[in-house]
What we know:
Blueprint: E1 2-8, H1 14-23, E2 27-29, H2 37-46, E3 51-55, H3 67-76, E4 80-87, H4 90-100, H5 122-133, E5 141-144, H6 150-160, E6 169-176, E7 187-190, H7 211-218, H8 221-243, E8 248-255, H9 261-273, E9 278-283
Parallel strand pairs: 1-3, 1-4, 2-3, 4-5, 6-8, 6-9, 7-8
Helix pairs in contact: 1-6
Amino acid sequence: MRIVLITGISGSGKSVALNVLEDAGYYCVDNLPPALLPSLIDALIADGTACAAVAVDARSAQSLVELPVNIRMLKDQGHDIKVMFLTSNTHSLVARFSETRRSHPLSHQLRPDENPASRRTLIECILEERERLSAIEQLGHVIDTSDLSANKLRAWIKELVEIERAPLTLFFESFAFKLGVPLDADFVFDVRALPNPYYDLTLRPLTGMDAPVIAFLDAQPSAAELLEDIRAFIEKWLPSFKTDNRSYLTVALGCTGGQHRSVYMAERLAAYFSPTERVVLRHREQS
Length: 287
């Protein structure tokens, strides 16, 4: 079984890492006491699970000492196990807890000699957590997230566990402006400036997928120019969206009735990008 063990300082991005792995098909468990790790893996194997990700934090203080032993045991059993330790500087952690308005996990735990009326400060919790986790910090790959955006951390996690990045899906959608702009559109292009086949009575009942309408618009220099401009724009910026870990990009093309010009442009763009990209074509106003 492929096992990714995620541990580290609270607020350093363990939830982000776990979400990445869950999206990649891993069976994910958060806040598992280390003593239960072998039992969990046995149960998942019996259930036919191939990949698992487990997050462990400092709240399981009593059983943290067992974690190195459990990791060695799992490796001896032939499991492919990777350990990630996420950390961050105290200044960044304080800022993150302040932004989210969440309390530190250790703030709810009392020391044996601690007055229930006196809670530890955030910085005191962070320092104690560092102390608790110091013995396991070097068990795996350490990632300092102090200056990392969540998106950058996602990319690093994917690279570390060798997750194949799902290709971006490029959606082309035709629509009618008179019925509203699609809410899921990332880019909206208005193609109403093109000559309208609607005013040709022989073309009116047809759509942008029919040969006579295609021939009509193919003969318009403005249609070819606008198509090239949109195509060049998408080609220029598509790599940036892929780098940004986007799963999809929706390009909406609108005309007055959503029957002729927008359909033609969406069809042309989809045909151009299909050989190299994952493309989905939608015509919103087509029955």
